[in-house]
Amino acid sequence: MEVVRLRKVRTGDLVDGRYRLEDAKGAGSGGIVWSAFDTKLKRTVALKRPHGEQLAREAEIAAQVQHPNLIAVFDEVDGWLVLEHLESASLDQLLVQGPLPVERVARIGMQIAGALAAVHERGIVHRDVKPGNVLVAANDLAKLTDFGISVWSEVTGTDDARVSGTPAYTSPEVAAGHAAGPESDVFSLGATLFAALEGAPPFGTGAPDEVLNRVRAAELPQLTGPLAGLLADMLNRRRKKRPTASQVRERLREIVGGWEPPSPVATRKPFWRRRSGQLAGASLAAIAVAAGAFVALRPPPAAGSDLIGEEREADPCSLMSQHVFRDFGPSELRTDSGNFNRCDVLVDVRREEKIDIEVQLVTRASLQIEKSWQLVQDKHFSVYLMPSDDRECNRLVNVDARYGVRVSAKMPNSPEDLCAIADTAVNTVQEVLRKGQIPRRAKKFPEGSAAWVNTCGLLPAETLPGFNQPVDVFAGWSCKWFSLANRTEVRVRYDQHPLTDSIGGRPATLGGHEAYVLRDTGTSRSCTVQVPYRPPQHLPRTTLDVLLVTVIGDPGEIELCPEAERLAAVAAVNLHRR
Q: Looking at residue 400, what is its pLDDT?
């Protein structure tokens, strides 16, 4: 059959020579949706044909954010989006049978709020949160879909302010002609949860103009029950008084108690097989010294997941085996390179020049999936293939809905195929995951180790005005902040530095502590401050724990090194206060 390129399509037609259309699921403001069978990967997917420019916009936005409660976008082909298929009903379909119980509404709301929090962290506003865009599976797994009219938050400042979305779930500021922001999504989610509880949106239905007038007035009906206080806050007429999506998620978590969202990702035998040649699709991928009050530095033990377990106990070196690289040259396993979530194998390939193969445990919330990464996926495990060059090759193994393993093979002008080496490491990682939980570390970190101090707590919120909430990379050993105002990123992490090696950079004293300032002279877009951590009761070791504070941004917008030094002073003081 020919690849479908015409507007009129029928059951049985092929899209891109691969996706066989099965059933038309409906059409709406977001576009036409079909279920389809992927004849290559032997799975059911959803195909969506968005209207006009929504195709490129939705594909681009979906590539930026990955979250277990967002419908995943796999690809863009011939004017169609290839989406994750979820056996589910939309929330508005469920409400045909009547209002839902409070506990079920809280479960659904907690998941969608988590999805919105992830979206907002990337500077994206959904703009059409409503029951029709919330999909609910039989086990109460809930996912947010349809980013067709979403915008980057910096774009909304110059938006033409036309009302978009659905009037009954539109916020007062948008109904009044103002640009949408994250607070607008929170209002729309509040209206959606209200409708799930009461069977109708808070400002009623009817002619759009009439509904929008009632929304602008924002006169709420009487609220009762366990969700009354939260809904009143979410539906506050003043946008700045509303909680963030992250705060909504945590308040709903208190209501649902011990219930956890079901994992949408299977964790059994992986699909990845040892390479008999190149992998299909090859290289598309994977502050003031006086700190004042700050959050607790010792984090509570992380709950982890079935395969990760307690984060600080998971051994990244159990995912590596130096013997699998013997065909490339003599190898050495390094357990103390870089951060605590990392393990390395060094392969001697050319006169003492070595390929460095890194494996790092990461949270998927800390990743920014790029559109250029190719997702190789089936029903068990999936892997992102990231763009590669002659210096390094990178892969990302998705462990489950919360975690991933980043694999990198690095060496300038390597005589060996770096991606072949990275893929060998990926095979080893997945063989370990197939057996169950990642093995535990042989020894716990000593009491004097920086591994017990959460980097996300080293910079209190007042030192980073205008930045988003911190994003934990893994076990509190690395943390990220981002500001949309000046497009600046701040990273704080640990490094295990050999005691016999000197620390590079310009010496400085920050917050009364030894430090070294190192500017990236290649791109001039980052500056890093390194602070050795020498607690009074530090046990003898072959490595030194080093705190690194990096500021990344446009030198025209911010003085990178002065800002990095300011932040490092605060972080150093808080680290040594523990």
A: 83
Largest Cα span, the chain? 78
Query: Contact at 8 Å (CB) between 173 and 125?
Result: no
Position 60: which residue type? E
Query: Within 13 A of 80's CA, how many CA atoms are on the CB side?
Result: 29
- Residues 565, 423 within the same domain: no
CATH number at residue 329: 3.40.1000
Residue at 270: amino acid letter:
P
CA neighbor of 126 nearest in space, from 141, 116, 134: 116
Cβ(92)–Cβ(129) under 8 Å?
Answer: no
**Token pair of 520, please?**
């990236």
CA 182 to chain centre: 17
Residue found under tokens 């990760």: 308
User: Is residue 264 in some structural domain?
Assistant: no
Q: Is residue 278 part of a domain?
A: no
* Within-domain flag for 19: yes
pTM over 0.70: no
Q: What is the rounded CA–CA span in Å between residue 507 and residue 496? A: 19
Q: Are residues 426 and 386 in the same domain?
A: yes
Angle between helix 245-256 and helix 182-198 axes, rounded to 10 deg: 30
**What Rg value do the Cα atoms of the chain yield, rounded?**
25
Residue 296 is assigned to a structural domain of this protein: no
Q: Does residue 454 share a domain with residue 429? A: no
DSSP E strands, 8-111: 14-15, 19-28, 31-38, 43-49, 73-77, 80-84, 89-90
Among 405, 395, 567, residue whose Cα is nearest residue 493: 567
Q: State whether 485 and 524 are in the same domain.
A: yes
- Which of 85, 172, 162, 88 is closest to 131 using CA atoms? 88
- CA gap 202, 386 in Å, rounded: 45
Q: What are phi and psi of 547, to 5 degrees?
A: -90, 130
Whether residues 231 and 111 share a domain: the answer is yes
User: What six digits make up the tokens of 87?
Assistant: 């056996």
Final residue in a domain of this structure, among 434, 464, 493: 434
Break the chain down into helix, strand, coil percent, rounded to 5: 25, 25, 45
Which residue segment(s) compose the domain that 491 sits in? 450-576
What is the rounded distance in angstroms from the CA atom of residue 309 to the CA atom of residue 229?
A: 35
Q: Say which CATH number the domain at 38 has.
A: 3.30.200.20
Same domain? For 337 and 247 the reply is no
Instruction: For the chain of 578 residues, list the mean pLDDT of each consecutive stretch of 10.
Output: 49 86 65 82 81 57 74 80 82 88 94 92 86 88 75 38 65 85 94 92 80 80 86 92 95 87 46 32 29 37 71 94 84 90 90 88 84 70 84 91 91 89 92 91 88 95 89 94 86 91 92 94 88 75 90 87 96 90
Contact (CB, 8 A) for 70 and 365: no
Helix (H) or strand (E) segment spanning residue 528: strand 526-532
Pair (121, 207) in one structural domain = yes
Cβ of 313: how many Cβ atoms within 10 Å?
18
**Residue 499 vs residues 332, 496, 529: alpha-carbon distances, Å:** 19, 9, 18
- Please tell me the total count of domains within the chain: 4
Are 559 and 473 within one domain? yes
Span 332-357, pLDDT tens digits: 998 888 999 999 999 988 776 899 99
Task: Look at residues 434, 460, 477 and tell me which one is the last residue of a structural domain.
Answer: 434
Backbone angles phi, psi at 215, to 5 degrees: -65, -45
